[in-house]
């Protein structure tokens, strides 16, 4: 079976060209498809096209190596992923009717042909719904994708990965409020990863992994610091409840060139995917931006949690913040384990059940730092969240202490969304690494002082902002006083005139 490329374009793609092209694909859907659903259709098509083009490249290489042996070129050993007969991009492209049905069939067959790696990866998009996706629209979309070659020779994994991230952010910008469910600003992710400082060979786990951005950033950080990428094979773990989002995470990792990882779909708090016997699996680095103050999170299950995740107490039924925290703490490896988690500010000071949990966690002496970030940086909330950093075994100099960082002014103001820039990330990371007092910004606080404050972790209790008073000359002060006196006299005259007019003054 001979495989020909589905397009004639052999130009090497740069990030600008590819990003623009993918965004135009989304625009083709605009109207029949709601913006919130763009990702449901665009990402599977992008992945399908990439698989097909890479398959063609592998086929051509095998054909050349075997002096034209077609049977040899089809051997599974010559391909990273299998593309069954009739399920290639070009097969769908050849259809003029019932294109949605052909797409759906091809994607399901590819999933079935690669059960260990691609099971369910294309999600649950309704390709056969002609009221939303007419044959004409799908034809336009497929022809649009067909104009580019997405094979490795023309589209490097890092370029494709960057374009994928570009799309994720663009879709987040479009949907804003809903975006918080799957997208964490990449600058915040970079900060958290830099704090955890993952090393080659260490395991990394995100229990609310969304589109996989935190896992990818951790992998990128390892490579940036000269770590052997091969030592990260099989070291990335994530769980995501939403089917579409978990599929996007897996595609994201594949398209970034990740070879071996574990992304599971499911409800982490009710049914954690990674465990050994009666114990949760543990990891060197645990990182997450879980849903804020999640209701109906599973308190009924946690009353008798088989994994002992209620070790500090049962969180309230209407707020799962400390359920995530306790799950993550339980998931930290002994000695090497450290974690960073994004949470609403309320976890720092809310009382009752959460206050008691906070007390127990503090007395365990595993909380290393509390970082308050700026407002309106995260999608879907104008609130200013915080980042909590925990370590299973804190450095000796940090024991019985917590570092508080007020980074609430570290952002660039934007029209719709504020932005944490690289220089802001650098500043916050430097303060964290320094682990010392900086006036108006950060302070190292003893557990005794926190205990005296009834285990309240609200940052303003410990870090007082520097009040900058404007200096004023004596002449300016006298001039301001004269101006104020004149205004007061004028106001008095107006009042007298009004009273006289009404006959209220003798």
Helix-strand layout with pairing:
Blueprint: H1 15-29, H2 38-65, H3 70-74, H4 89-93, H5 99-113, H6 135-146, H7 157-175, H8 186-196, E1 204-206, H9 213-224, E2 236-240, H10 243-255, E3 262-265, E4 275-276, E5 279-280, E6 285-288, H11 299-302, H12 321-330, E7 338-343, H13 353-363, E8 367-373, E9 386-391, E10 401-407, H14 422-434, E11 442-446, H15 447-452, H16 474-501
Parallel strand pairs: 1-2, 1-6, 2-3, 6-7, 8-10
Antiparallel strand pairs: 4-5, 7-9, 8-9, 10-11
Tell me what the structure shows:
The chain folds into 3 domains: 15-176, Up-down Bundle (Ferritin); 182-461, Rossmann fold, CATH 3.40.50.150; 471-506. Helix 1 (15-29) runs antiparallel to helix 6 (135-146), helix 1 (15-29) crosses helix 7 (157-175) and helix 2 packs parallel to helix 10 (243-255). A hairpin with a 2-residue loop joins strand 4 and strand 5 (279-280). It has 506 residues and is α/β, with parallel strands linked by helices. The radius of gyration is 28 Å and the shape is globular. The strands form 2 sheets. It has a 9-stranded mixed β-sheet with strand order 3-2-1-6-7-9-8-10-11, sandwiched between helices. It has a two-stranded antiparallel ribbon with strand order 4-5. The protein starts with 14 loop residues before the first helix and ends in a 5-residue tail after the last helix. The chain is built from 16 helices and 11 strands.
């Amino acid at each position: 079976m001979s495989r020909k490329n589905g397009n004639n374009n052999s130009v090497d793609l740069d990030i600008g060209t590819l990003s623009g092209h993918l965004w135009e694909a989304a625009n083709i859907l605009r109207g029949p498809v709601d913006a919130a659903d763009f990702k449901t259709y665009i990402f599977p098509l992008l992945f399908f096209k990439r698989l097909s083009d890479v398959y063609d490249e592998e086929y051509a290489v095998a054909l050349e190596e075997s002096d034209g042996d077609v049977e040899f070129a089809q051997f599974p050993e010559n391909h990273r992923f299998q593309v069954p007969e009739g399920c290639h991009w070009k097969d769908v492209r050849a259809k003029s009717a019932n294109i949605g049905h052909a797409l759906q069939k091809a994607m399901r067959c590819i999933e079935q042909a690669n059960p260990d790696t691609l099971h369910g990866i294309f999600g649950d998009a309704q390709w056969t719904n002609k009221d939303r996706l007419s044959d004409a629209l799908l034809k336009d979309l497929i022809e649009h994708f067909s104009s580019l070659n997405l094979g490795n020779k023309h589209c490097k994994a890092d370029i494709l990965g960057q374009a994928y991230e570009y799309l994720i952010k663009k879709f987040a910008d479009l949907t804003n409020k809903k975006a918080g469910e799957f997208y964490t600003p990449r600058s915040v992710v970079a900060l958290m990863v830099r704090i955890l400082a993952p090393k080659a060979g260490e395991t990394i786990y995100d229990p609310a992994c969304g589109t996989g951005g935190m896992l990818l950033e951790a992998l990128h950080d390892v490579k940036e610091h000269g770590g052997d990428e091969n030592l990260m094979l099989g070291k990335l773990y994530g769980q995501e409840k939403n089917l579409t989002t978990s599929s996007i995470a897996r595609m994201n990792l594949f398209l970034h060139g990740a070879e071996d990882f574990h992304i599971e779909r499911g409800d982490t708090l009710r049914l954690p995917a990674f465990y050994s016997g009666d114990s949760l699996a543990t990891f060197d680095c645990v990182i997450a931006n879980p849903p804020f103050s999640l209701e109906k999170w599973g308190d009924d299950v946690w009353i008798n949690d088989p994994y002992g995740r209620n070790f500090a107490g049962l969180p309230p039924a209407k707020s799962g913040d400390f359920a995530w925290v306790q799950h993550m703490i339980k998931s930290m490896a002994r000695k090497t384990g450290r974690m960073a988690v994004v949470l609403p500010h309320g976890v720092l000071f809310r009382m009752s059940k959460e206050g008691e949990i906070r007390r127990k966690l503090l007395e365990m002496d595993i909380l290393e730092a509390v970082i308050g970030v700026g407002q309106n940086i995260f999608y879907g909330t104008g609130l200013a969240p915080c980042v909590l950093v925990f370590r299973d075994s804190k450095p000796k100099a940090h024991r019985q202490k917590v570092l508080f960082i007020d980074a609430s002014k570290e952002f660039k103001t934007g029209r719709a969304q504020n932005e944490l820039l690289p220089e802001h990330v650098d500043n916050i990371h430097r303060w964290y690494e320094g682990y010392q007092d900086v006036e108006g910004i950060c302070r190292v606080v003893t557990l005794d002082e926190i205990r005296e404050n009834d285990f309240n972790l609200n940052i303003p209790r410990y870090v007082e902002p520097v009040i900058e008073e404007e200096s004023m000359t004596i002449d300016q002060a006298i001039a301001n006083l004269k101006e104020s006196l004149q205004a007061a006299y004028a106001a008095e005259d107006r009042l007298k005139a009004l009273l006289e007019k009404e006959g209220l003054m003798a």
